[in-house]
Every structure is written in C-alpha cells, then in structure tokens.
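Batch manifest, entry 17 of 40.
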Amino acid sequence: MKLRWSFLFLLFFSAGLFVTVQGQALQGISGHSENGAIEGLEVPPYRDRLMDLANVLQPAETEILKGKMIFLQLATTTQLAILIIPDLKGQVLENYSLRVANTWKLGRCDINNGVLLLVAVKDRATRIETGLGLEFILTDETCKQIIEKEIIPFFRAGDFYRGLDSGVTSITKILTSSQEYKDLYSRPCTCAVETGSKPNE
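Output type: structure tokens
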C-alpha cells in the first residue's frame, strides 16, 4: 500500500480538546521512512478486515461493520481495514500506522486504493491512512472532516461502534458517489497474482 501522508488527530476526551497535527512526508517501503523507536509495539499479522485488539466492540457490532466493509470492497474494490489497539506504548501514531499499512499492503496493487483506520484507545488517538490511488478523493481535508465530525463525537461519548460505523459510512458514501473513482476502479486489474500471509477475501 503506497502512502503519502495524512492527518494525525489526538483526541483529548477528558478535556474535550481536539488537537490536529499534520503528518509529515515519510520515506520507506512504500515511499515513507519511519522515525522513532519501534520496540514494544509490533504490527499484528493481518487476520481480518476488522481487528479489535482492545476489545471495545461487541461481536454483533464487529460483524455489522465487517459487512459494510465487505460491501465497500465489492462495490468499489476499495479494501478498508480497521485496527483498534489498546495503546501505542510510546510510539508515534503516524509512524506506527505507516508500518501497519506497509505490512498489510491493503488495496489493489495497480491503483493503491487501500484505507487503514487506526484507533489507539488509551492514547485517545485515531488516524486514517489512504493509498495514493485515493488521495484525489479522500483528501487530507476530507479525512480530517470525517474524523472530526463523524467519528470524534461518538468516541467522546464512549461509543466506539457508532463512531466507527459513522466513519465507515462516510467513506463509503464518498467513494461510491465518485464517477471519477468509478472510472479508475472499473478498469481491469493488472496486478500479478501474489502469495503472502494476508488471507484471501
């Protein structure tokens, strides 16, 4: 999954204060580098499109969200993954989210249309990473608005399911309503068949 940069949002629930910090351009496997230590917080193997490692969702809620994410992929070929972790263990959110996205390699390789929504519960932080093929539609400002208006209000109330559901719904509406994006993902896939640790979906 090739990434450029997105926005980092630290959510200070107790104070009701939201601080927006613009992510920096990074270099690495997918054109990004990562600064800072990485010890103590490994990237989990990709096992499902929604991985709730903090146990903040009920099983029924997880299944509903996964169903909506499957619909998005079937409708637009966009692979959306959600990772919820207890905390960052001192890591920088933008660096860790890039490590996850680079490791999981979300989206079609020919148009780089993967999306990662990462939530660190105890750090009260969330971030959206988008593939380069989506940067013209899921712009930095658009991701900022999704997080601030669709996700944060529910997170502040302690309702992670409704926040994630609102975010997934917003992303789906944007991507399914764009004719320009439809023209892109409707093209035949030119990716060679790849073998790896990520399960087939």
